[in-house]
Every structure is written in structure tokens, then in C-alpha cells.
Amino acid sequence: MRLRVPFRDGLMYWSWRVAAAMVQRLPARLVYVAAVLGGEVAYLAWGGRREITKGNFAVVLRRAPGDPEVARVSRRAFRNFGKYLTEIMRFPSMGQAELHELVKIDPASREYLRSAREHGRGIIFVSAHFGNFEIGGARIAQEIPLTVVADELENQRLMDFLVANREHKNVVILPPEGATRRVLAALRRNEMVGFMMDLGPRAHELANVEATFFGVRTAFPTIAAALARVSGAPIIVAAVTRARDNSFKGVAVPPIFVERTTEASSDLERATQAIVHALEGLMRPQPDQWYIFRPMWPAPVDAAT
């Protein structure tokens, strides 16, 4: 087994490098055709994840898991995820001008960011695995440095490679363990720190509360709310949505400020619910851009009943 794991990790690393080299050289139209085909194959072959995804979208759409519309949205999510992967492969070769052209920030959202930063306490940037959150983060980081707290891949060699690619775009990736000091330092510099909220079962391994999401209660990490409560930094909930031409639009909601009372648990629950409600509003119009291939809710729910 000791030999197999390094071999597997090395194979994955070099497979990614070779695929990325091809993606960066082939015409974008051809790459997207291949990405959609790959997503279709994954949907058909990855049976366990397909059923989990359908269970999640049954809740989002308030339909039974076997409903044809649930299957259609799930299928499109796999296809969009294929596009997302090729974009991450192309990401290192994107120049600043190309990134600026690819992702347009909604004017109202830009104003929300500006007003949040005027408080001088940094910004807590919250999103989900939706649209192309990585490219969107790099686009925002052109204007405000971004530090993201995220779980590491098991394949450390591939993880190091991907982290280095992001650092060239002014995005720093930190593992959760030991990140507190660097996160607080970034906020003191009036920079952004980012967190993903849709962790599914992983949320139970962290400090968490239950919040209502698409009408059903489930666990969400409280780290963003807790950090805002302690630091006074505003929370910006945002998403980067894909257009039909595979360009992107960055959209945010007005800043959320966490009230600090003597009841810390209530403060965190209210703030987390506000974050989740904002995410739901951003995701609802285009649910097929959500890459949620792990159970988001604690048990299968027949949302149609």
C-alpha cells in the first residue's frame, strides 16, 4: 500500500499537468466540447455521486428525487463541473487583462465591496462551490488581496502545485489548522479572507450550527460569523455565475454585520442564517451551477411531500 499511494498520487499529478498543458493550447471551443462530454460520462458512470447529487437537487427544486427535472439539473451540474475543471487547468496561463475581461463585477456589488472596505477592518468573503468561485476570487484579488481558508487535497504534490498557481494571482490558500493568526493579520491589513460554506458532512467536524437552507435544516460552519463577531469585519456573500458564452459575472449582496451581544451562540446562529439565506438567493436562479456531489442535508428528504 505504501508504494501504491505515492504511485497513484504521482499519476494524478502528472495527469493533471498533461491535461492542463493540452487545455492551455487547444481552442477554447474544442475544450468546452470535451469538458461537457467528460461531465456527461461522469454523470453516467459515477453512480453513487449521481444519486447524492439528485438527492440534493430534489431539496433545491422541491421535487421528488426521481423527478425528471431533478435529473436534468443534476446532469447539467456535472457538465458545468467539467467546464470548471478545464478553466482551472487554463487558469495559470491567464493574464491579468484576460481575467479582467472574463469576469465582470456587477456595479452594485462593487459598491458593496467598496463600502465594506471603508470600515477599515477587512472583509470576510463567503461563497459556495458554485459557478467558478476560483476565477472569481482571483478577479476580486486583482483589487483586494485575498486569503482563503480551505481544506487540503490528500495529494500534497498536486495541492502544492495548485496553491502556487493561485499565489501568482494574489490569492493565498491556508489550511484550517493554524490559520487564525494569518487570517487576523490579513483583516488588520484591510484585506479579504474567504470561506466556503457548503461543506456538507465536513461541517460537523468544525464548530457549526443548523440553519434553514432551501427550506430544510442542515449544518453550516460558524467560522465566518465568529470571525466577524470578534473582528468587527463585515461579511460579503458573493457568487460568480456563468453566462451562456462561458464568461462570468460577480454578484454580491449588501454587507452583513454581526451583532455582538452577551449571547454568543445566538449571535452566531443569526449571522450564519443570514449568510445561508443570502447564498440561497444567489444560487436559486441557476442551481445547475452548484457542484454539490456530497450530501448537503443530513438525510434524504422528499421535498415534494
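Next protein, fold it too.
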Amino acid sequence: MNRGVGSTASRGSSPGPADVPRAELTAAELTAAELTAAGLTAAGLAGELAVDEPVVDEHCRSRPAEPLRPFVAWYTGYRQRGVPPARHRGLPSPFLTLIFTLDEPLMMLAHPDPRQPPGDFGALLGGLHSAPALIVHEGAQSGIQVALRPLGARALLGLPAGELAEIDVPAETVLGGVCAELRARTLAAASWRDRFAILDEILLRLAGGRLVAGWLAGSRLAGAAPEVAWAWRQLLKSGGAMRVSELAAETGWSGRHLASRFRAEIGLTPKAAARVIRFTRARNLLVRQATAAGARAANGAAAGGAAEGGAAGDGYRLADLAVTCGYFDQAHLAREFRSLAGCPPSQWLAEEFRNVQAGAWGAREPGVDRSRPRPG
């Protein structure tokens, strides 16, 4: 479930102005409308942060060491102090989530599986999921999120990603004493660069030990079935557009057999995985458009002119975004957002706009999810 750790995301009190026709909104127009509806003006944000303690808002992303890149997409470090308490949606993505907290525990209000009770985590590990998680903080949060590739789970975790599907577990139950070691050493480190170097060292040691143990035992610990690995990569490459029947035909397996083996290894069926990949692509494109619109608005304000971000031709219309990402129409896109994010695109963008302003979004790698702090 990669619910990416993200920066502070305030709760949107309104899904958006009812009198604005959704079919006519561009991403830029939607952002402005939702900010107004949620009261997220620049002056309001400044007022919210007028607290006694100094405001700290650090976010740093880095790629892992080269030998780890088949297993890990990126690291995200975050530290916030003196920011408004917030609730954050941890959304489905094509990555497993591994979070090591630094100063405060991760406060999970709701998990993708509603049967899991709320709780606090010093370190959290979660599989792929198709429902949102809810994370809260009281004005401070800090830690490192690791975006794990499902095909790297065997090497780093000693188990297939499928065993973690739709659930969150204390990372200590899988990684053991590594979690305490990493927390102690990263707390003592002077910079994010140093913390990421420590993470590289520990994960390389972990992967090397598991690969050697698997080789000695004669097992295939390091990899999934080639057919499953190929099918997963094809789904990523196509943005979730490749049909399951085509995947099955290319592997030489029946659709049922592919679905069973794929789910056991990855954690979702090929159809569900395609849905999550397509949703993540749409969300990232929407965010990039909102980020660009915000930059244009800021430049216009600095120049003393009117912001131009709301012009109809300046960004994606949601209907165009739906077509680009392989949805039947805008209504289909909206239904998928409600199902996978728990709210419409407009409400989600309003809630996450602080992340957009902080530059926490827009990474180019397919499936990037900064949505969970699942801080981030």
C-alpha cells in the first residue's frame, strides 16, 4: 500500500462550490475555487502558523544507492514543527510503504483494512492497498519514508509483497532490530544526506544477508516468477492501460492462473493493480498542473498583475485528464477518486494544497505517492 509520507495536509471542510460546473473546471480553476471554499488563503496560512515555537517544515527526497534501486524507488525525509494539526489521506500507489519515525510516533486514525484498529507506530510497514488510510498529527511529525518496489520485497523483507496486502504492521515484526538501530543512528545524524547514507548502509546489509541466505537454502528468495515480474512491469509501463487478457496471453497462462500468482506475489490482482497505477498517474498529473498554476499565480502577484492560472487553456480540464489517463470520461475518473481516495478530486486537491505549495509533489517516476505521512 504505498501511502506515501507527505507534508502537512489540512482537512478540507467543503468538497467545493456547488455552483461551479465540474466539467468546465481546469486544474488551475479547481485549485483556486477549492482554496476559497476551504479558506486556504495566503493570509490565512500565515495566521495559522503564528505560533510561539519556530516553524520547521523540512522535506527532502533522494534516490537510494545504486545497488538498492531495483528494490527501492526513493527515500523521503520529513520534519515538521509548529504547523497546524492535520489529517492526511494515505492513498493507494504502486509501492509498499516503510516508515521509520524519528521524534514522534506515526498516528494512524484508519487503515486501508477497516478491521484494523487505530494505533501509533514507531516504524510501519504496509503492503499495496486499494483504499485510503488516514493519518493525523498534532502539529509535529518527523521520519523517513522508504518507497519499496513490490518485486523487491523478497530481497529486503524476506517475504513476497502479497503477504502484506491491504494491511499495516509494525515494521519490527518483519525487520526486527534493524528498526531500533536505524532510528538511533538517524536521530544522531546531522543532515538528511547523512540519514539517507545510514539507510543505504542498513538496507544493503539487509538485502545482502537475505540474498545469501536464500542462495544457500536453494530458494528463489530474490525474485518472483518471471511471468509475474513481466506482467507487473508491463502494467507500470502502460500506465495501467494494458488489458489483463493481453497480459495472460503473453505469459501463456490463463487469466485465472495469472491473477492468482500475481496477487500472491504483488498483493493485488492485475486488474486492481492497473486501477491503482492509472489512478496514481491521474493524481500526479493533476498535482503537476496545480503546482504550475500556483507558480504562475505567484509570479503574476509578484509582478503586480492578475494571476492567469485560471484561464481555461492553461491546464488540464478534468475531462481531458480522464481521457489522457485511460478513463471512459470525467464521471469515471470522479468515481475512481471517490473509491480510492475517499473523496472527489476537488476535495482531495484542496486538502493537499499545502503539499503542492511546498513542492512535495510532481516526482516523475510512475506511481510516486507523496500522499501519506504517511507524512511527506
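About the second fold: The beta strands are 56-62, 72-81, 86-90, 96-101, 106-110, 119-121, 123-126, 133-137, 140-148, 168-170.
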